[in-house]
Amino acid sequence: MDYISTRGSAPTLDFRAATLAGLASDGGLYVPAAWPRLGTDDIRALAGLDYVETAVRIMAPFVAGVLSEDELRALCRAAYGRFSHDAVTPLVQLDHRHWLLELFHGPTLAFKDVALQLLGQLFETFLAGGDRDITIVGATSGDTGSAAIEAVAGREHIRIFMLHPEGRVSDVQRRQMTTVLAPNVHNIAIDGSFDDAQAMVKRLFGDEEARNRVTLSAVNSINWARLMAQIVYYFYAGVRLGAPDREIAFSVPTGNFGDVFAGYVAAQMGLPVAKLVVATNVNDILHRALTRGDYSAGHVTPTATPSMDIQVSSNFERLLFDLSGRDGGAIRRMMAEFDASRAMSIPEDMLAGARRLFSSARIDGDEMALALRWAQERGGQLIDPHSAVGLAAARALEIDADVPVVTLATAHPAKFPDAVERASGVRPPLPARLGNLFDREERYEKLPGDYDAVKAYILAEAARG
Ligand SMILES: *Cc1c(COP(=O)(O)O)cnc(C)c1O
């Protein structure tokens, strides 16, 4: 499979190079040159397969030419062997038509593990035996940091530096990062805000001296391999609810548009998807874009669903690329307009294409809490606030009564105990496998909110090998 950029002028790469590159050199995002199709018999044949075999069938066309099926299977076994549930992403029934797809059984209790555990395996495989080391540098306000650290801890040819704002992440979130004591993991607590930390990371990536000394790689970059891993669970859930002979709707709590874009790819590959619901909180740029064509960045309002508190959704560019008829020049012009003015309007013909598959809903804090309580009282499930945003949108969806509606449950409730307790009156306990988190040794470096100090620390530690 070849990979091309959404902005049309970066070199075409194979899967290995696209995975290692992250962002394309023209500022665009890599996408496969064509969507592979599964016939109805191929989809029917997935019915009895376990998660790893499903993953191999779905991902094989995307890695063709770089990894054999056996190599891919070995990587999937290693990645998904670390999940605490044998089904990896089990389906749970809430009522006669609503289902939860639990994506939080990985090591850090958020759905990002599904993609990042595989990405860690891919990085190590692609760097093995070479003389190239990569240095991952990121800033986190919580979830991404721990998932990325768990994915690369102890791996050869990779080191990771993760900046977090000191005192501004929860104790659970900090300890999930700082108790990983592998020598290639470096946690840095910055005296400053998340935005300060993020700005330092951006500056480092543009710093020629730093770039000459280490091969920098971004963990929050929009890596195709992350999306690819997420296509699998749409098929895994879909065949269990009757695909290819029955249509399924999915509701997806959305931030960067990565997870829901994977659902779009599943539909392009042949999964009968009746609707994809883009569920946002009050930071609703995607809802405005899909309903009114108004894609304009505002200010972020902090909510009980921090992983969805975004200004812009980087992966939306991948959808726009398809909606434009894969016209890289058109996307380059649209994104240049957006970069200049922080706003663009999406042409009506492109919107009409999107609305055939997507719908959207904006869910405020009260609606979120109501859905959380409904799941608890009527469905017997304590869910996290992000999943509750998805469920609220799913329940508002107007669709044929015989279409099952699957809400993606993106985090374990114990990751957000305060918000869950506020809405439900119940404080979710940490799962047993994390039970001793508060007894483990922590290791991290405290640094002032000063770019030169942070850069000097990273370059010195990187040079120590
Ligand atoms: C990252 C995240 C999301 C948003 O996913 P996107 O792929 O960015 O749309 C939703 N819920 C949780 C818990 C997350 O960590």
UniProtKB/TrEMBL annotation:
Q: Does the keyword Lyase apply?
A: yes
Q: Name one GO molecular function term.
A: pyridoxal phosphate binding
Question: Which InterPro entries does the record match to this protein?
Answer: Ser/Thr_deHydtase_PyrdxlP-BS (IPR000634), Thr_synth_N (IPR029144), Thr_synth_N_sf (IPR037158), Thr_synthase-like (IPR004450), Threonine_Synthase (IPR051166), TrpB-like_PALP (IPR001926), TrpB-like_PALP_sf (IPR036052)
Q: Which CDD domains match?
A: Thr-synth_2 (cd01560)
Q: Which residues form the Threonine synthase N-terminal domain?
A: 3-80
Which Enzyme Commission numbers does its entry carry?
A: 4.2.3.1
- Pathway, per record: Amino-acid biosynthesis; L-threonine biosynthesis; L-threonine from L-aspartate: step 5/5
Short name of any one Pfam family annotated for the protein? Thr_synth_N
NCBIfam families referenced in this protein's UniProt entry, alphabetically = thrC (TIGR00260)
Q: Which PANTHER family match?
A: THREONINE SYNTHASE FAMILY MEMBER, THREONINE SYNTHASE-LIKE 2
Give the protein name, as stated in the record. Answer: Threonine synthase
Instruction: Name the species this protein comes from.
Output: Sphingopyxis indica
Q: From which lineage does this chain's organism come?
A: Bacteria, Pseudomonadati, Pseudomonadota, Alphaproteobacteria, Sphingomonadales
